[in-house]
Design brief:
The complex is a heterodimer. Chain A is mainly α. Chain A folds into 2 domains: 23-74, no CATH class; 80-294, MetI-like fold, CATH 1.10.3720. Chain A has 15 helices and no strands. The longest helix of chain A has 33 residues, at 262-294. Chain A is globular, with a radius of gyration of 25 Å. Chain B has a single domain (61-280), classed as Orthogonal Bundle (MetI-like fold), CATH 1.10.3720. In chain B, strands 1-2 form a two-stranded antiparallel sheet. In chain B, helix 1 packs antiparallel against helix 14, helix 9 packs antiparallel against helix 10 and helix 11 packs antiparallel against helix 14 (256-280). The chains are: A mainly alpha, B mainly alpha. At the A-B interface, helix 1, helix 2, helix 3, helix 6 and helix 7 of A face helix 1, helix 3, helix 4, helix 5 and helix 6 of B.
């Protein structure tokens, strides 16, 4: 490998870029590689084992030592979960998440546009409030009780719009922040050219900013979808009728209902992961870039 | 420029919603907390009575202490492990690095309820995979959930496991924003790998590190689901932390007065963290 002494003699552009691609040397590298192997097992094993468990009959579940592939797969657990109405919960969550994504993007884009391109009274403090709201909605446990009392008072609980309303408010600040970052990078000359051609400020949003913000909208959209689909606390207290119950509280109820029957429990968990894994497989890159741009939400 | 108010039209819908869901409930909650609550409705004005009642609660001190220990341990471990992983992934190159990132983020992307449930099934349950293998290997019976210390350790472990992916991605973005020239220049001057990390990488990573620390602290101090699904707060009260306590007071024992008071105390703790976050996020308007 090239040493420091030889590198310095080489012209700058010919110096091989080994440094960046090199594995860490020695014991440290081995330790980190081992740590990563452990992490890969820790991260993927519960998923894989959960799916396998969901396909096992009760007798195979209690076999000892545990069997990996040597069993007859059955859909019985899925049938039981579906008989308990789980598909209805999934349908509701899909509806809540879709409405939330649409509402979040529709509200965030104009707001981000205004914060970047307009000058209006209190712009600075209001944007500060948006930034502060990003981590604030992480503190849903603290916000939940006041939120519950207030919504009960206003009669906004237990309706089809209750959860989309709350989820949109939780995701909106992050979406505004991500989109403003992208709009900052769109040259103002484009706006000016459009306006010189007779476009209104709204036309600029519609025909210049919107098309060029698609990647940011994708990133904010997929994070919003994941956040709404995975939400538990508001979903479990803001609506009570079973027909409105989203997926996560439904799974939590199954824990009480099925008790130690891990077959149906893992079947419901598997079903709940499917939409997330699809989003992840198709839009994984956007999730990473959204998180990076948003740098928010643990 | 037409009127200076033109821009306001574009933000009014967003702020109307934030006002309804995030901001006004706080004021309403504070007003509500000053009353005696019966059957979910305020009856007579008692001032700070609900807050005083919290101070008289002998169990609350323990809950606060446990929450602090839990959050501190979870955050420190998450940041340390994520930093090591991020530095390693950064050296892997574009494609391999991306695959590793994808694996790292899996527990973050699935819901806390499902992730915790599956973790419990595989690693904690007595007929689950890990303990079956341990028994089979002759390690005997391990009953994690019956031992207060082990149960708290497990709660911390699950919390770290769940949130590493998030921290790795933010720290990785921080690492990528450091120009390569800095490291090269230091190397040419004879710096070792450790010196480069200690004197160049770490100082330049200060902002993302602090940001991650704040977000992780907030998210750990507000997680209801992790203890609820993993341990139910047990054994005894060994893993009962503040957010779960608030949730229980409000929706299990229906003591909305003390739940609201405690939620507001937590909320003001959150505000302090949020202020630190805002300073670091370097907002520009």
């Amino acid at each position: 490998m090239t040493t420091g002494a030889t590198t310095t003699r080489m012209p700058r552009n010919e110096r091989p870029l080994v440094r960046r691609r090199q594995w860490l040397p020695g014991a440290m590298g081995v330790a980190i590689a081992l740590a990563f192997a452990a992490l890969a097992v820790l991260n993927l094993l519960p998923l894989i084992w959960g799916v396998l468990t969901s396909l096992k009959a009760e007798t195979d579940l209690f076999r000892f030592p545990p069997v990996i592939f040597d069993f007859t797969p059955t859909l019985a657990n899925y049938e039981r979960v579906i008989a308990s109405g789980f598909l209805g919960n999934m349908k509701m969550s899909l509806f809540y998440s879709a409405v939330t994504v649409a509402a979040t993007l529709a509200l965030a884009l104009p707001a981000a546009y205004a914060f970047d391109r307009f000058d209006f009274p209190l712009r600075g403090p209001l944007f500060l409030l948006v930034v502060a709201s990003i981590p604030l909605s992480l503190g849903a446990a603290a916000l939940l009780i006041p939120n519950y009392l207030y919504f009960t008072r206003l009669g906004l609980t237990n309706a089809w719009f209750t959860l989309p309303l709350i989820y949109t408010a939780h995701q909106l600040p992050m979406a505004i922040w991500i989109m403003k970052g992208t709009i900052e990078g769109i040259p103002r000359e484009l706006d000016e050219a459009a306006i010189a051609d007779g476009a209104s400020r709204f036309d600029v949003l519609r025909f210049v900013i919107l098309p060029l913000s698609r990647p940011a909208m994708g990133a904010a959209g997929v994070l919003t979808f994941v956040g709404s689909w995975n939400e538990f606390v508001a979903g479990s207290v803001m609506v009570d009728s079973p027909g409105l119950r989203p997926v996560q509280p439904a799974i939590y109820n199954f824990i009480g209902f099925f008790g130690r029957e891990w077959g149906p429990l893992t079947a419901s968990a598997t079903l709940a992961i499917v939409p997330i894994l699809i989003a992840f497989a198709l839009l994984g890159r956007l999730i990473v870039s959204g998180l990076t741009k948003g740098s928010v939400k643990g | 420029m037409h009127s200076r108010r033109a821009g306001l039209i574009y933000i009014v819908p967003a702020f109307a919603l934030l006002g309804l869901v995030l901001f006004s409930p706080v004021f309403y909650g504070f007003w509500f907390s000053l009353f005696r609550i019966q059957y979910g409705a305020p009856t007579d004005f008692i001032g700070i009575g609900n807050f005083m009642r919290l101070l008289d609660d002998p169990a609350l001190g323990g809950t606060v202490r446990r929450s602090a220990v839990f959050a501190a341990a979870a955050v420190v471990l998450t940041v340390a492990i994520s930093l090591a992983l991020a530095v390693w992934i950064h050296k892997l190159g574009e494609r391999r690095g991306f695959i590793v990132q994808m694996i790292v983020i899996v527990p973050w992307i699935i819901s806390t309820v499902v992730a915790t449930l599956l973790f419990r099934w595989v690693f904690v349950n007595d007929i689950g995979l890990a303990l079956s293998l341990a028994r089979w290997a002759g390690l005997g019976e391990i009953r994690i959930l019956n031992d207060p210390t082990l149960a708290m350790g497990l709660l911390i472990a699950v919390s770290v496991w769940k949130r590493i992916g998030y921290a790795v991605i933010i720290l990785l973005a921080g690492l990528k924003s450091i120009p390569d020239d800095y490291e090269e220049a230091a190397r040419i001057d004879g710096a070792t790998g450790w010196q480069v990390f200690r004197r160049i990488t770490l100082p330049l990573l200060k902002t993302p590190l602090l940001l991650v620390t704040i977000v992780l602290t907030l998210s750990n101090l507000n997680t209801v689901e992790t203890p609820l699904v993993l341990t139910g707060g047990g054994p005894g009260d060994a893993t009962r932390i503040l957010p779960m306590d608030v949730f229980d007071r409000a929706f299990v024992t229906y003591d909305l007065g003390s739940a609201t008071a405690l939620a507001l105390v937590m909320f003001f703790g959150n505000i302090l963290l949020v202020l630190a976050y805002v300073r670091l996020a370097r907002w520009k308007a």
